[in-house]
């Protein structure tokens, strides 16, 4: 159980991670470790259930994980932590991948890449924004 919990903190974007380790079962949970915790949700210890990220993963909101990372990104951005905010916006889009909020995610990525001084990431973000229009 603790290994699955630690595994939920892993973040990957390769096809191997998203396809091989995914066991999508229709409950909105895609990551392998998250799915395993979902299957054990009735017996999880308090320290796992109290984790706000796990609450988002196990909740019934299809956009729970997106909303969790979006909130983290907004907090970091308000505090001027743009490197951190960039990472959280990235996770908002690709931790449990969502297409529905891509414009908002790309805006956050572009804004924070620019403020963090990440010119290459800023340019990539602009390119992706243009591809949506």
Summarize the structure.
This protein is an all-alpha fold and 133 residues long.
Estimate the global geometry from the Cα principal axes: elongated
Largest sheet: none
Task: State the distance separating the first and last CA atoms.
Answer: 44 Å
The count of strands amounts to 0
Describe the structure in your own words.
With 133 residues, the chain is mainly alpha-helical. The protein is built from nine helices and no strands. It has helices at 2-7, 15-20, 32-39, 46-49, 52-58, 64-78, 82-94, 102-116, 119-132. α5 packs antiparallel against α6. The chain is elongated and about 45 Å long.
Please tag this protein with its features.
133 residues; mainly alpha
Give the SSE layout.
Elements: H1 2-7, H2 15-20, H3 32-39, H4 46-49, H5 52-58, H6 64-78, H7 82-94, H8 102-116, H9 119-132
Helix pairs in contact: 5-6, 6-7, 7-8, 8-9
């Amino acid at each position: 159980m603790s290994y699955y919990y630690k595994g939920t903190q892993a973040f990957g974007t390769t096809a191997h991670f998203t396809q091989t380790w995914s066991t999508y079962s229709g409950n909105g949970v895609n990551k392998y470790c998250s799915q395993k915790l979902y299957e054990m949700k009735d017996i999880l210890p308090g320290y796992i259930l109290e984790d706000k990220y796990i609450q988002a993963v196990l909740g019934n909101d299809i956009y729970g994980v997106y909303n969790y990372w979006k909130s983290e990104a907004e907090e970091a951005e308000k505090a001027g932590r743009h490197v951190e905010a960039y990472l959280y916006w990235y996770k908002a889009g690709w931790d449990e991948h969502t297409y529905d909020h891509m414009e908002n995610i790309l805006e956050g990525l572009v804004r924070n890449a620019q403020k963090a001084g990440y010119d290459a990431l800023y340019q990539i973000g602009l390119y992706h924004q243009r591809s949506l229009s």
